[in-house]
UniProtKB/TrEMBL annotation, chain A:
The gene is pdxT. Its EC number is 4.3.3.6, 3.5.1.2. One of its GO terms (molecular function) is pyridoxal 5'-phosphate synthase (glutamine hydrolysing) activity. SUPFAM superfamilies: Class I glutamine amidotransferase-like (SSF52317). GO terms for cellular component: cytosol; glutaminase complex. CDD domains: GATase1_PB. This is Pyridoxal 5'-phosphate synthase subunit PdxT. Transmembrane segments: none annotated. One of its GO terms (biological process) is pyridoxine metabolic process.
TrEMBL record, chain B:
It comes from the Bacteria. This is Pyridoxal 5'-phosphate synthase subunit PdxS. Catalyzes the formation of pyridoxal 5'-phosphate from ribose 5-phosphate (RBP), glyceraldehyde 3-phosphate (G3P) and ammonia. The ammonia is provided by the PdxT subunit. Can also use ribulose 5-phosphate and dihydroxyacetone phosphate as substrates, resulting from enzyme-catalyzed isomerization of RBP and G3P, respectively. It holds the Pfam family SOR_SNZ. CDD domains: pdxS. Belongs to the PdxS/SNZ family. PROSITE patterns: PDXS_SNZ_1, PDXS_SNZ_2. It is an enzyme of class 4 (lyase). InterPro entries: Aldolase_TIM (IPR013785), PdxS/SNZ (IPR001852), PdxS/SNZ_N (IPR033755), RibuloseP-bd_barrel (IPR011060). The gene is pdxS. D-ribose 5-phosphate binds at D23, G152, G213, G234, S235. Residues 6-211 form the PdxS/SNZ N-terminal domain. It comes from Paenibacillus catalpae. Keywords: Lyase, Pyridoxal phosphate, Schiff base. Signal peptide: none annotated.
Length: 195, 293
């Protein structure tokens, strides 16, 4: 089982370290041809406008949508959550349009409003330390989306089948439980998808 | 809930990795930078090459420029304060600037003390040309580093020197024994604990970008090859003939820094890059990298 981390821009090395700590083989992915050998992929935090442009430039838009159609899991953190969303609040267009949700960018404000907090997550026993950096929020979700975590009445983590997204940065701490959760999703999916 | 923690400040810089941070002087340039794929912009009154040409005292930008840039882009906005100028930094923080560069490009306000950056909620980036400077800035609270290079020259040689030196020094301290590390901390003028951390992990505890002299897509890719986490481009973009094309080319070369065919492709017909200055032609007072050690 091999999980990729989309390495166009952002915190790639931290995700690779966390995935490995959660027991998976992890690789950085710069070209769409490399998707074929993967069982799942993480779209990391970074600047969503930059990642969004490079995704289009290098043919990842259709390639990742196709990856998802095969039932292979995708995990978006922060900017990655924005990339996965169907709709971005205040913008005419979105990126991959895979997850049935409306997201708002920089929803907590500027960098000085960035924070960390203990956050309970459905499916994980004890709260995890969640680091929010100029973080987005999930404003609305469709009926097929399972809300995994709420902070101050706003949705900050959600799952829709083989798609997982969170507003914060699990890769910036030494707590690997959310990555382990995703690794389990990938394991589950490899049983049903054919390579 | 805690704001301004070291993790939140350093994490913000982690999110810039593999990206290009561009100097801009107005809203229009900021929009061009964002559209080209910049991960952040640095709002300035004058780019380094103009500061060099103008001479005199270079200060924090007029808040109007910073505000106007913050209004038009959704990516993070950085701004420069003079070394040691606590008030300029507090003013920028109060305006909601996302990152402050305590920068040698501006005329230092204090020739001895840097700002005590740990006391701020907003994160800081500082320049460093060797491991001693790097760890002193981190000790003061810098959450991100960049090479000093020689700003506004369009000459990459100093940024290369600084990155090579820092990386070489890291490799050296990795092989030192405890007793040697105590001595090395004294020689470098840095706290022992921080040096021990570098010795054990083999890397700096914060992100280190390249800055000061990046003038072409190949320059940006070279700095990534040498281990930079990302690139600041100052005078290079908006002093070039076609800023939009140039900015996009730098972004692509930084992402795919080992894809030489791609770099060749994006480097075509970019027009004349900034003229550049041979470093030995600068007199001592013109060397910005010697400010704030």
């Amino acid at each position: 089982m091999k999980i990729g981390v989309l390495a166009l821009q952002g915190a790639v090395a931290e995700h690779i370290r966390s995935l490995e700590a959660a027991g998976a083989e992890a690789v950085a992915v710069k070209r769409m041809e490399e998707l074929a050998e993967l069982d799942g992929i993480v779209i990391p935090g970074g600047e969503s406008t930059t990642i969004g442009k490079l995704i289009r430039k290098y043919g990842f838009l259709e390639a990742l949508q196709d990856f998802s159609k095969q039932g292979k899991p995708l995990f978006g953190t922060c900017a990655g959550l924005i990339i996965l969303a169907d709709k971005i609040d205040g913008q005419d267009d979105a990126h991959l349009k895979l997850m049935d949700m409306v997201v708002a960018r920089n929803a907590f404000g500027r960098q000085r409003e960035s924070f960390e907090t203990d956050l309970p997550i459905k499916g994980i026993n004890e709260p995890i330390r969640a680091v929010f950096i100029r973080a987005p929020l999930i404003k609305e979700v469709g009926s097929s989306v399972d809300v995994l975590s709420v902070y101050n009445d706003e949705i900050v983590a959600a799952r829709q089948g083989h798609l997982l997204a969170c507003s914060f940065h699990p890769e910036l701490t030494d707590d690997f439980r959310l990555h382990a959760y995703f690794v389990d999703m990938v394991k589950e999916a490899t049983k049903t998808t054919t390579k | 809930m805690e704001t301004g923690t070291s993790r939140v400040k350093r994490g913000m810089a982690e999110m810039q990795k593999g990206g290009v941070i561009m100097d801009v002087m107005n809203a229009e340039q900021a929009k061009i930078a964002e559209a080209a794929g910049a991960t952040a912009v640095m709002a300035l009154e004058r780019v380094p090459s103009d500061i060099r040409a103008a001479g005199g005292v270079a200060r924090m930008a007029d808040p109007t420029i910073v505000e106007e840039v913050m209004k038009v882009v959704s990516i993070p906005v950085m701004a420069k304060a003079r070394i040691g100028h606590i008030t300029e930094a507090r003013v920028l923080e109060s305006m909601g600037v996302d990152y402050i560069d305590e920068s040698e490009v501006l005329t230092p306000a204090d020739e001895v003390f840097h700002i005590s950056k740990n006391e701020f909620t907003v994160p800081f980036v500082c320049g460093a040309k060797d491991l001693g400077e790097a760890l002193r800035r981190i000790q003061e609270g810098a959450a991100m580093l960049r090479t000093k290079g020689e700003p506004g020259t369009g000459n990459i040689v100093e940024a290369v020197r600084h990155l090579r030196l820092i990386n070489g020094q890291i490799r050296k301290v990795q092989n030192l024994s405890k007793d040697e590390l105590y001595h090395e901390a004294k020689v470098l003028g840095v706290p022992y604990d921080l040096l021990l951390q570098v010795s054990e992990s083999g890397k700096l505890p914060v992100v280190n970008f390249a800055a000061g002299g990046v003038a072409t897509p190949s320059d940006a890719a070279l700095m990534m090859e040498l281990g930079a986490d990302g690139v600041f481009v100052g005078s290079g973009i908006f002093k070039s003939d076609s800023p939009e094309k140039f900015a996009r080319a730098i972004v692509e070369a930084t992402t795919h820094f080992r894809d030489y065919k791609l770099i060749a492709e994006v480097s075509k017909n970019l027009g004349t890059p900034m003229k550049g200055i041979e470093i030995s032609k600068l007199n001592a007072a013109e060397r910005m990298q010697d400010r704030g050690l």
